[in-house]
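REQUEST FORM: STRUCTURE PREDICTION
Request ID: SP-0412
Submitted by: Lab K.M.
Chain count: 1
Length (residues): 284
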Amino acid sequence: MGKVYRFLRRVLADAVGHFLSDDGWALASHVALSGILALFPFLIFATSLASFLGASAFTDTAVHVIFDTWPRLIAEPIAREVRNVLNVQRGGLLTVSVIAAAYFASNGIEALRVALNRAYRVFDTRSIIYCRLQSLGFVIIATVGIMAISFLLVLAPLALRIATRWIPELILVSGTISFWRYFIATSVLVIGLLAVHLWLPAGRRRFLDILPGIFLTLLAWTVGASIFASYLETFATYVSTYAGLASIMVAIVFLYIIAAIFIVGAEINASIIRYREGKAAERL
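STATUS: Completed
RESULT:
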C-alpha cells in the first residue's frame, strides 16, 4: 500500500507541477479557442466532401457524433447554429473556401499537437509540411469516419426491419437507437484520443503508456461536464452577461475545462513514463 501511495504521489506531483510550470492553463485556452475556431471550418469542409460523395445524412450524424458527449445545455444552441450553417448550399468540392476551411480545421489539430508535445516533454523535429499534412490527414479521416457512420445509421433501421421478419424478438431493440447513438459518439471520442496521443506528438509511445491518461481524461470529462451542466442550470448568469454571445461563451468555457483535463491526462502519462524509466535506471 505504501508503494502505491508513493507512486501516486510522485506521479501526481510531477504531472501537476509540470502542468503549472509549463503554462498549462495558457495551453488549455489555446486548445479551446483553436477548437471552437476549427469546428465550423471542419464541418463545412466535411459536409462539402460528404455531399460530393453522396452522403446525404452527414449533417445529422456529424452533429450527433460531435455533440452527444457534451452537456445538453451547451450542445443544443451550438448544434442548432451548426445545422443552420451546414444547410447553406455551397459550390463544388475544390473551391477556395472549402480548401481554406480544411486548412483552418487543421489548426485545431495543430493546437493539440503543441499541447501534447509540451505535456510529453518532447521537441518536435519533424518538418512543418509533414505536420500540416498529417493534421489535414486527421481532418479527412475524421470526415470519412463520420460518413461511414452516417451510412450505417441510415442502413441500420432498414436492416432491422428486414431482420425482424425472421426474428420478431429484435423489435425489442428498435427503441435503443439513442443508446447506439451515444455509444457511437463515445467510441469516436475514445478512438480519437488514442489516435492523437499515439501519433500527434513527437517520439514513440506504447499503447499501454497512453491508457492511464486517456482513462483519466474520460473520467474527468464525465464528472466535469456533469458539474458544469449543473452549474449552468442553477448559478450561471451567462445569458444576462453575454446576451446573444452566451452560447458561444459557454462552449468556450466548457472546451477550456476539457482542454485542461486533456493536457493533464497527457502529463499523467508522461509522469508515469518518467517514473518507470527512473526505476529502470536505478536497477542498472
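NOTES: Residues 225 and 231 are 10 Å apart (CA to CA).
Reviewed by: T.R.
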